[in-house]
Design goal:
Bound molecules: ligand ME8
Catalytic activity: tRNA(Met) + L-methionine + ATP = L-methionyl-tRNA(Met) + AMP + diphosphate
Strand order of the largest sheet: 3-2-1-14-15-9
Subunit structure: Monomer.
Distance between the termini: 64 Å
Helix content: 40-55%
Pfam family, one: Anticodon_3
Structural class: alpha/beta
Number of strands: 18
Family: Belongs to the class-I aminoacyl-tRNA synthetase family. MetG type 2B subfamily.
Oligomer: single chain
Subcellular location: Cytoplasm
């Protein structure tokens, strides 16, 4: 009888859900690409991955944009949500579900979460009087605002306009969670990463927490408050709940919830750290739901170092970027160039440099040169290697150690270091290839040439397998050219060597140089 297959370890990863009040920009694309690389990496590493992304459709910002555009808010949400989903498809984002907060199961999840917080005695009715930024969908105390020169008031941190708001709302007893939150940051230091973000949040919470207004009565575009439909939930309450909806909440007995909750990783941008690392764990503690394991905060992308803004006119359309440079190049550039967790900058020049130096030269050339030599001189099959020299052995030992090094970086969300590690091996392999001069060996020692080519294409195979999460298309082509069937491309396949005698198709360049028009 067959042994029962070992169950794969689940891994639940999410992106923030974007406001579809406009179309996506490159910052959104960056978040989706980076999270997708993490999800793909985990799948190739044998995990049972669930990857959730989507759109955050309620709230005043959506309502006001719709009014300004003269369209019903449901239509605005649908139209732009579709654009976000189309972007995901263009970027080959391998999500398992694209959630919309107007989905029926999400309304149900939000209702139940609210009821559970209410049952805990953490929700009470009062009057909110304070400042509100529609752009940030956030409440600010007067101390968190500044008077601008023209006499208008803005949120100091985000420089967005705030308006005075006074209405009857429900409050969440956030102040009661101060100690428990600090305990969480203390006992589970990996809950917030990078550490700089963690430190910021710890000092914010130590500064004292005020109860949070969690409903609105002056507009109705939101999830109705259970038992009091004059109120809609504050958009962040229902937005954060999307992560639970994706796991099947409120059906906590379901296989999905049992498998995937708590989420392993929430990926978010730096402007929404407080919502995810203060409000969200407090809501879950109140509702008696287990907390996610980790929130990783990525930085902001700047165009040539300048903040993107519609008024400056430097908002880059990610689809145009993909049209210009190609998808794999854009994905590679963003993940290799920017230290994940810090702000980063992009420019035409820096993208072209990465394409030509890292992709076309270091990887493309090496693959093309070694594979064409195999094609011409080894009857287009993987050659049989002879005895290994010390150089051969050293290179293969290093290549075999790569997966562990890369995994360590990926588990810390150091995506840039994972790629740096891979490219450092490529540098070494290029030096090996030049030093061994297989094109000379072709005449002087064909057996030795066969060994050098074998070692080189074996390293290219290892690199291609490990780079799939970042460049799914180009690596698929490369693995085709290496004669690797589609079921021999996981990290488990790094444990065996490329098989001599494997027939190889005629190679063709996979990483073209970028040539200026
Ligand atoms: O905040 N660079 O939606 P959003 C990098 N609906 N990332 C950026 C960026 C930039 N220039 N600008 C924005 C929201 N982002 C909420 C989220 S989650 C329960 C609700 C990131 O459309 C931003 O930090 O304003 C966030 O992670 C994501 O894009 C969506 O931003």
């Amino acid at each position: 009888t067959d042994a029962a297959p070992t169950p794969r370890t689940p891994f639940y990863v999410t992106t923030a859900i974007a406001y579809p009040n406009g179309v996506p920009h490159i910052g959104h694309a960056y978040e989706y690409i980076s999270t997708d690389a993490i999800a793909r990496f985990k799948r190739l590493d044998g995990f049972d991955v669930m990857f959730l992304t989507g759109t955050d459709e309620h709230g005043l910002k959506m309502q006001q944009t719709a009014t300004k555009e003269g369209v019903p808010v449901v239509d605005l949400a649908r139209r732009n949500s579709d654009v976000f989903q189309a972007l995901d498809d263009t970027l080959k984002i391998s999500y398992d579900r694209f959630i919309r907060t107007t989905d029926a199961d999400h309304l149900e999840a939000s209702r139940v979460l609210w009821e559970r917080m209410q049952e805990s005695g953490d929700i009470y009715l009062d009057t909110y009087a304070g400042w509100y930024s529609v752009r940030d969908e956030a409440f600010y105390t007067e101390a968190e605002t500044t008077l601008a020169e023209d006499g208008s008031r803005v949120a100091t941190e985000t420089n967005t306009p705030v308006e005075w708001t006074e209405e009857s709302t429900y409050f969440f007893r956030l102040s009661a969670y101060e100690d428990r939150l600090l305990e969480l940051y203390e006992n589970q230091p990996e809950f917030i990463a990078p550490a700089t973000r963690r430190n910021e949040i710890v000092s914010f919470v130590k500064g004292g927490l005020k109860d949070l207004s969690i409903s609105r009565t002056t507009f109705d575009w939101g999830v109705p408050v259970p038992g009091d439909p004059e109120h809609v939930m504050y958009v962040w309450v229902d937005a954060l709940t999307n992560y639970l909806t994706g796991a099947g909440f409120p059906d906590v007995e379901s296989e999905r919830f049992q498998t995937f909750w708590p989420a392993n990783l929430h990926i978010i941008g730096k402007d929404i750290t407080r919502f995810h690392t203060v409000y969200w764990p407090a809501f879950l503690m109140s509702a008696g739901v287990e907390l996610p394991r980790r929130v990783f905060v990525h930085g902001f992308l700047h165009n040539k170092g300048e903040k993107m803004s519609k008024s400056v006119g430097n908002v880059v359309d990610p689809v145009a970027m993909v049209d210009q440079y190609g998808l794999d190049a854009v994905r590679f550039f963003l993940l290799r160039e920017i230290s994940y967790g810090q702000d980063g900058s992009y420019s035409h020049e820096s993208i072209v440099t990465r394409i030509n130096a890292d992709l076309a030269n270091e990887l493309g050339n090496l693959a093309q040169r070694s594979l064409s030599m195999v094609n011409k001189n080894c009857e287009a099959t993987v050659p049989v290697p002879g005895p290994m020299s010390a150089d051969d052995e050293a290179l293969l030992v290093r290549a075999d150690a790569l997966v562990d090094a890369v995994r360590t970086h990926m588990d810390a969300q150091a995506l840039h270091l994972a790629l740096e590690e891979i490219w450092s091996l490529l540098g070494e392999t290029n030096r090996y290839f030049s030093a061994q001069e297989p094109w000379v060996l072709r005449k002087t020692d064909p057996d030795r040439m066969a060994t050098v080519l074998y070692v080189t294409i074996e390293v290219v195979r290892i690199v291609a397998i490990l780079t799939q999460p970042v460049m799914p298309d180009a690596t698929a082509k490369l693995l085709d050219q290496l004669g690797q069937s589609t079921d021999a491309r996981t990290f488990a396949d790094l444990g065996t060597r490329i098989r001599p005698g494997t027939a190889l198709p005629k190679p063709a360049g996979v990483f073209p140089r970028y040539v200026e028009e």
